[in-house]
Amino acid sequence: MPTTTRQWLLNNHPRGRGIEDNDFKLVETELADPRDGEVLLATRYLSFDPAQKGWMENIADYVAPMAIGDVMRGGAISEVIASHNPKFAVGEIVFGTTGWTEHNVHDGEGLTKVQTTLSPTAVLSVLGTTGLTAYCGFFKVGKPVAGDVVLISGAAGATGSVVGQLAKIAGCRVVGIAGGPDKCKWLVDEAGYDAAIDYKAGDVKAQIKEHCPGGVDVIFDNVGGSILDDMLANIATGARVVVCGGISRYETGGHPSGPGNYFNLIFRRASMAGFIVLDWAPEFPAIRKRLEGFVQDGKLTYQEDIQEGFENAPATLKRLFTGQNRGKQMLKV
Ligand SMILES: NC(=O)c1ccc[n+]([C@@H]2O[C@H](COP(=O)([O-])OP(=O)(O)OC[C@H]3O[C@@H](n4cnc5c(N)ncnc54)[C@H](OP(=O)(O)O)[C@@H]3O)[C@@H](O)[C@H]2O)c1
């Protein structure tokens, strides 16, 4: 049994700037023996989420603040390698917010056993926070109706790509906005989007108008900034604007500027609402089953981008902010 473990600690709050290498510190620390009620976990896969930048900055008040020297917070899949807790047996695979640590003594609170017919990593991707966010944000906030035109920013990402496919299942016409021709091709050819807009090719507003001539009924925004402005310029009467995330603000830190075209909400009698997926936690087991069913039926595909090596955790987090990731960003420890 290991007696020490490597851990990545928070070393700086990256406020007002992007993430830098020096924001993390790799240390080796002693590992206590698990006591009664505890398990010893070996981390197998780490999950990476744009929200981690917000947690490092302490701008989010829906989670506890992070202090310098804390183990970097994040979701993970782990294997139970020793157990003094009757609920968990050695060899079982679990997931939870166990952080950037190779091993971890845990009291079992908040750990969920991986039980899926898909690959275990699916509990961090299509059945994980991003899949659940797509489902809850789209259906509960976006309130789609068959025939609606749905426009998604960050469309090729882990969350966005699931939103678009759920929208197709709901009978909507789906247009995605993503960075670069490869991601746009994947959206149309593999994810079944009706059209994709490459925001890096310029004039996003005109491209939206071309693909959504009658206006957009549901916007699912992961990006914010000028892309949100361009989407707001093209809403239909009664549109619902779902504010899921604003990753464009993470480039520089700080707060994003307000949407320039918000007045269009008045003219179009539209609504705009944010959400935090954790508010629907009691429904997660049922929603995971639905998402798993869609995958099994061939209606929902997903991409996983799995980097390797615990020492590469900071570099892997940065990939989300440069668009290098292809689908759900993870790292095999
Ligand atoms: N509200 C909630 O409860 C909740 C829960 C989970 C996630 N979220 C939000 O959901 C969004 C997606 O998260 P995810 O984990 O699924 O990540 P992801 O979409 O898989 O990865 C992030 C993607 O954002 C795009 N991006 C990065 N910087 C950008 C910029 N400056 N302008 C435009 N696009 C940019 C990149 O795609 P391109 O190559 O296309 O640029 C990148 O691949 C995030 O905003 C996250 O904060 C919200």
Class by alpha and beta content: alpha/beta
Rounded to an integer, what's the Rg over CA atoms?
Answer: 20 Å
- What's the domain count? 2
Distance between the termini: 17 Å
Summarize the main sheet: 7 strands, mixed
For the record, the CATH architecture of the largest domain stands as: 3-Layer(aba) Sandwich
Q: What does this molecule look like?
A:
This protein is an alpha/beta fold and 333 residues long. The protein folds into two domains: 4-122 and 303-332, Quinone Oxidoreductase, Chain A, domain 1 (Alpha-Beta Complex), CATH 3.90.180; 129-278, NAD(P)-binding Rossmann-like Domain (Rossmann fold), CATH 3.40.50. The protein has helices at residues 51-57, 129-141, 158-169, 181-189, 204-211, 225-232, 247-250, 264-267, 284-296, 313-322; strands at residues 4-10, 24-30, 39-47, 76-83, 93-96, 103-106, 112-113, 149-153, 173-178, 195-198, 216-221, 235-243, 271-274, 304-308, 328-332. Strands 3, 4, 5, 6, 7, 14 and 15 form a seven-stranded mixed sheet that branches. A six-stranded parallel sheet has the order 10-9-8-11-12-13, with helices on both faces. The chain has a two-stranded antiparallel sheet with strand order 1-2. β14 (304-308), α10 (313-322) and β15 form a beta-alpha-beta unit. α2 (129-141) crosses α3. The longest helix is centred in the middle third of the chain and has 13 residues, at 129-141. The mean pLDDT is 96. The structure holds NADP nicotinamide-adenine-dinucleotide phosphate (NAP). The site of NADP nicotinamide-adenine-dinucleotide phosphate has 29 residues, from α2, α3, α7 and α10.
